[in-house]
Specification:
The structure is a single chain. The protein is mainly α. The protein has a domain at about 1-15 and about 35-60. Helices cover about 50% and strands about 0% of the residues. It has three helices and no strands. The chain has helices at about 5-10, 30-35, 45-60.
Length: about 70
């Protein structure tokens, strides 16, 4: 999105389509692929959110336990 070629590629790519009613649910590998096809455009709010998430994830990397009994 920051270069002309990137913008053209974005505009030429068809958007992901949601499943039609009545079709079987997507599998474990299809769901992440569907959601990863969306584009996140960098805005000041998204930048702030990304910094906050990274800041909160750093302490979590060093914890040995993940839940209380």
């Amino acid at each position: 999105m920051t270069t002309r070629q990137g913008r053209q590629d974005f505009a030429a790519t068809p958007p992901p389509t949601p499943p039609k009613p009545g079709t079987p649910p997507r599998g474990r590998e299809e769901r992440p692929a569907y959601h990863s096809a969306f584009v996140t455009i960098g805005t000041p709010a998204i930048d702030t959110l990304a910094i906050s998430v990274r800041t909160l994830m750093i302490p979590g990397r060093h914890q040995q336990t993940t839940a209380r009994l």
